[in-house]
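Entry 14. Ran structure prediction on the chain below.
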Amino acid sequence: VQLQACGGGLVQAGGSLSLSCAASGVTFSNYLMAWFRQAPGKEREFVGCISWNGGRIYYADSVKGRFTISRDNVKNTMYLQMNSLTPEDTAVYYCAGVGRSKVPIMSYQAMGANLYDSWGQGTLVTVSS
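Output, structure tokens:
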């Protein structure tokens, strides 16, 4: 699968930004999808993931209540709506996916980056104070 993330940019603290991740080359509805982020000098961290039909979503505690993940299997796109942004949210945001043939059940292991075998190129989100 090819993943293309976009929507990053510069936003002031307290503002909102929406990212999208477009998939091609696969049946998108067969893919467990996730967002990760990597801040300068830090390791990549889990943001959230969404099941194949969008019925189950996990969030990192740091973004719970502020970020919303969704997907549109007709448009082959996953979204990340980010509200109440803080400078600590500054990072490169990556979308990732793994096929259902490899991961037939969504568990809390979906929070681990090692589970995913397809990654987008990343989009930079900068939150100014």
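The chain has a mean pLDDT of 96. Will compare against last week's run tomorrow.
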